[in-house]
Amino acid sequence: MQELTHYINGAHVKGTSGRFADVMNPATGEVQAKCPLASKDEMEQAVAHAQAAQPKWAATNPQRRARVLMKLVTLLNRDMDKLAEALSREHGKTLPDAAGDVQRGLEVVEYCIGAPQLLKGEFTDSAGPGIDMYSMRQALGVTAGITPFNFPAMIPMWMFAPAIACGNAFILKPSERDPSVPLMLAELAEEAGLPKGILQVVNGDKEAVDAILHNEIIQSVGFVGSTPIAEYIYATGCANGKRVQCFGGAKNHMIIMPDADMDQAADALIGAGYGAAGERCMAISVAVPVGDDTADRLIEKLVPRIESLKVGPYTSGADVDYGPVVTAAAKANIERLVQTGIDQGAKLVVDGRDFKLQGYEDGFFVGPHLFDHATKDMDIYQQEIFGPVLTCVRAQTYEEALALAMDHEYGNGTAIYTRDGDAARDFANRVNVGMIGINVPIPVPLAYHTFGGWKKSAFGDLNQHGPDSFKFYTRTKTVTARWPSGIKEGGEFSIPVME
Q: What residues act catalytically?
């Protein structure tokens, strides 16, 4: 049985707490490794190394820090297949999807190569007689991130790339369900030239999370996961004086207007609803066709596509559409919600409950499901299922469809499919959701824009990656300077004003 490690101060370090989590093979249901769960003392040791290393790194000019990231991009491309295979083995994603996980993180690293430009301050010459004013962006110090199981490459890079580009040290607490790729990323960063102690990986559970939240040296915390935990981390971190950004759950709607191309809409829903077994915070889990005729045409297009989906382990080849969910508990929760949907009166049009994969009967595979005639009071509509389940809620008008997205407690992403530019523009302007797709099913912004939801999908005032990330990982210092020439007649005791 493989025993994984932490990565502290440039070395793999065995856990000393005596506590471990099982790392499963989701396709077989077997335990493939043990992940150490850090104690408070172990976390504090990592923080101490980070604190010692950070000042010298912050004093390194941004261009030289950017060169480390340039080298990291080269190494990520070199090891893309290796990273994707390790990710698929622990998470269950198909290999193309796992490679996409790495690629979307890599793109943020590429963006952060622009640190010299992004960290430039402002300057005002002659703000007053002989007075100049200028601002500087300075590193926070030691920062930390708590990342989820569903994107074990992408989201860590979304956090640590801007953090270290800004001159901070970073403590990564990844999900204990699939920790191997984060450990590999730390190795690659140091191979790229990152000093020891600047990026460290400390595996753990709530004890490690609380050790981060209550550590006085750690200045900021980023989190992605469920909304209840996001609320806890945000409240606790802020109460302890930290800068905190937390991203929680989602229930993403896609509105399908009567004029939409139904083949395009159906294809979009298949990828957005069932890709990665639905384990994405930006998955489309609710289809909202406008009008019964639109709904009937959409369901007619969806059913054969869903029934032809190929479900299997990543080892079965690139034609597998999606793999298992991450744990037996996740599978059981999905099956519970499916049964709840049936009990509450939704029509199960495609029933994946009896799905079995020969030779993988103990794996965590869930067949694809499609509900129709669901209503907004049902659990399958209100709760994030995080599985291969698409729910159709019929709306009779555009305004009713818009209200569904706006009234839901989550506001991560949403999309509209239409040929009508006026409807699309109205939707984008009015809907109270953070990321909008117009004929795009999963509107995840590229690295040079920011990622973030609204309502109970996000806590904090700055988003991930893009320009917001450089604001989050720095403090602004403003300097007012006067260099007098000659001898002055003494001090001034009144508040200076600009003439």
A: 281
